[in-house]
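User: Could you go from structure to sequence for me? I need the amino acid at each position, not a summary. Structure tokens:
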């Protein structure tokens, strides 16, 4: 996704909120997941800096958008290892044998990352939902985060306090273009008024502040950040029901990349040994977001 201006450090933000752990983007319904690689340890056996054909020999180049915002990154600095996706990147690198100083970051806008064509990165972590449509243009690793969509608003809005999806159908909702959040808004909620489309979530937040829309559909961790850091009196109306398969974020790689099996094996190993759960507990949360019926 294109990014939003840097606001507050998400580590401090989430600590202040006292949030505990839990466990999006394409213009189609629920995105399909990438099958996990079996036998992660065996799959990683041949995945070393000496054997992997990376953009720069001996280094792992990771792409993401700028600004890199929380809770996925911290202080607009992907290289500091803080924030969920930054931490996942370094954990993947460690599984592959790369030291922290062998990981380099490049700025890659969301739409560029998922477009066909050669990449300037080895993998891209940018809250990209895995989908069959996107697989026509790029490769995905195994999923490193299981996604839920949410609806956010401000206290006293027309949808504040609503508890069902049906009660949102008369609302004026917004979402970022080309995301699964937009798909969830149009397909799951199916409001009577067209969903407003925004190039960035920042623009959606501004429209909500101006009361041009009643609420925004966005992935849940970003919803926590928006309501706590970007909105005055922001509230999460609730989580949308899960539909179909579990939507997941996956690392993006060049189509047919020889690195894809190794990146997937590293992610699978992190899921198997509990590292992903630990990082979710450190950086993300689902508390305070009721289920919409």
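Assistant: Here is the amino acid at each position, in order:
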């Amino acid at each position: 996704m294109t990014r939003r201006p840097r606001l507050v450090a998400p580590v401090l933000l989430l600590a202040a909120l006292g949030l505990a752990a839990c466990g999006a983007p394409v213009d189609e319904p629920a995105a399909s997941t990438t099958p996990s690689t079996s036998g992660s340890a065996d799959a990683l056996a041949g995945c070393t800096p000496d054997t992997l054909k990376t953009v720069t020999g001996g280094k792992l180049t990771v792409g993401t958008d700028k600004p890199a915002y929380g809770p996925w990154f911290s202080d607009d600095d992907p290289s500091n290892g803080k924030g969920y996706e930054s931490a996942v990147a370094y954990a993947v690198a460690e599984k592959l044998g790369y030291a922290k100083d062998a990981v380099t970051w490049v700025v890659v806008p969301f739409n560029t990352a998922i477009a066909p064509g050669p990449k300037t990165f080895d993998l891209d972590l940018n809250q990209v939902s895995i989908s069959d449509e996107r697989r026509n243009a790029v490769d995905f690793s195994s999923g490193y985060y299981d996604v839920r969509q949410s609806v956010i608003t401000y206290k006293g809005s027309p949808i504040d306090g609503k508890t069902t999806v049906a009660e949102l159908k008369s609302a004026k909702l917004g979402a970022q273009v080309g995301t699964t959040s937009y798909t969830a808004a149009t397909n799951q909620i199916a409001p009577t008024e067209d969903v407003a489309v925004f190039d960035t979530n920042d623009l959606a937040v501004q429209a909500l502040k101006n009361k041009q829309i009643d609420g925004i559909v966005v992935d849940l961790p970003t919803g926590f950040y928006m309501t706590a850091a970007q909105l005055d009196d922001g509230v999460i109306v609730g989580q949308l029901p899960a539909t179909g398969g579990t939507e997941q974020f996956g690392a993006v790689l060049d189509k047919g990349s020889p690195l894809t099996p190794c990146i997937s094996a590293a992610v699978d190993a992190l899921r198997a040994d509990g590292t992903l759960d630990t990082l979710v507990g450190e950086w993300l949360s689902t508390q305070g977001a009721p289920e919409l019926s």
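One structural detail worth keeping in mind: The CA atoms of residues 4 and 203 lie 9 Å apart.
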